[in-house]
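Chapter summary example.
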Amino acid sequence: TRGVFAGGQSGSAPNYDEYDTIDYITIASVGNATDFGDLTVQRWFAGPGGSSTRAVFGGGVSNPAGNHNTIDYITVASTGDATDFGDLTTASGYIAGCSSSVRQVFGGGYTPSAVNVLQYVTIASAGNATDFGDLLDTTAYATGTSNNIRGVIVGDLNPAATDVIQYITIASTGNSADFGNLRNVGH
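The structure predicted for these 187 residues follows.
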């Protein structure tokens, strides 16, 4: 029913304006975003995901604090500020996120170099992230997408943009596998 957007930054280095804002839209109707509440920490490039009930945001970057290990969650159907969910295994920004209705998986990130870490949480219960496995290679600035079975992590900027597509089976832990390649190099 709702699309939710959280955090962000504007401006240019080193003087970024950072946001803890959470906005939402009603997907079935056009119109401007409405204020939902605030994240627990101002940041951008947090790994997004969740279920139809909860949205989860993990990690992120802020200046000058650097990378965060914070995981926040909200209940999508009701507005309000985010609540602390737990912590990532590694403080990281530029994380890809993918989820089923049960698990949220965070992939890759930047810590201050790209990592191959996959970590997950169970969406319905708060707690710290647990190791899921490893990506094929160190990955940052990637994009994640998923259905209820498979998570796909696309692209990379490590240190140059790549065409890598990799996937995981969300219900079982393990390393990612090669899915194929993008038509163009990108992140």
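To summarize the output: The two ends are 28 Å apart (CA to CA).
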